[in-house]
Amino acid sequence: MQTKPVYAFDHAIVRIPCSAIVNGLRAVDIGAPDYAKVLAEHSAYVKALEAAGVTVETLPALDAYPDSMFVEDPALVFTEGAIVMRPGASSRFGEAAEMAPTLKHRFDRVIELPSPGFADGGDILVLQDRVMIGLSDRTNETGAEALTECLKALGKNPVIVRTPANVLHFKSDCSLLDENTVLATKRLAAGGVFDGLKILFTPDGEEGAANALRINDRVFVGSAFPQTIAMLQNAGYAVVPLATSEIAKVDAGLSCMSLRWRAA
Ligand code: CIR
Asked: Quick check: is 242 in a domain?
């Protein structure tokens, strides 16, 4: 049986941004995002998922959780089942319980990450042969070790790696491009985590482009990163540029706004 690529997806879950996103978490305050513009970026993203052949389930806005549109963080999903995470930011912790019923409805197998550790989906990079768990300010060692057991129970091959200092999530600085290739910042790849894989480096000044998203035959890339777009096009990838300038104000990119999986 031929193995499907890990970026072959036919389903996704997203959540409508709530108006409290203007109060979303951010490391550096460069101004609050404009709610109407966030809605527009989100809507274009959902359309791009659908155009890529993905059936999208849209969950309602959750006003109690400013960052709840970033559904990637409170859960992990695979063909084999889902994991309810324990987000490492206290203001986001309750998002996991909000997501759990949807996962139980959609997946036969749902595993809850046991307490007391913490882990965010943004720290998890799924490669063809392994699942990387990046330690960060949101994913601690206890959480990473517990997640290792959850992933093994789903038949995955987890490895724990490090996220550079001052980088929010492991995947803020990298993404999968194909079975053998990743897009990464120089500072993240310098740690040697991708040795053995082909690495395309984000051009200097375009580190924010590293959070791209491979979906089926295309790669979503932030439209504010022309050098990265040109580099990926020259390498033969079908690039879909998407606006991310508003969500970037709350440290978000293209992977954060969906949970993606392939039904069996
Ligand atoms: C946060 O700090 O949690 C949000 N403002 C941004 C989350 C981005 N999520 C992701 O990269 N997976």
From this structure: yes
Best substitution site from 65, 67, 136, 166 to test ligand 1's pocket, by max atoms within 8 Å of Cβ? 67
Taking a C-beta distance cutoff of 8 angstroms, is the pair 253, 243 a contact? no
CATH of the domain at 87: 3.75.10.10
Cα 124 from Cα 75, distance rounded (Å):
10
- Report pLDDT for 1: 54
Q: Per-10-residue mean pLDDT for the chain, 264 residues long?
A: 88 98 95 97 98 98 98 98 98 98 98 98 97 98 98 98 95 97 97 95 98 98 98 98 97 97 93
Q: Which residues line ligand 1 (CB under 6 A)?
A: 24-26, 67, 70, 72-73, 89, 92, 122, 168-169, 172, 250-253, 255-256
Is 247 within the bounds of a domain? yes
Strands 55-59 and 11-15: parallel
Domain membership of residue 5 (yes or no) is: no
Number of domains in the chain: 1
Question: Which residue range(s) make up the domain with 100?
Answer: 11-261
Neighbours of 105 (CB within 10 A): 9
pLDDT at position 124 is 98
Q: Whose CA is nearest to atom 1 of ligand 1?
A: 25
Both tokens assigned to 260: 């993606």
Q: Tell me which DSSP letter residue 86 carries.
A: B
Q: What is the structure's pLDDT at 2?
A: 63
Question: Burial of 60 by CB count in 10 Å (0-12 exposed, 13-18 middle, 19+ buried)?
Answer: exposed
Report yes or no on 2 lying in a domain.
Answer: no
Atom of ligand 1 nearest to the CA of 121: 12
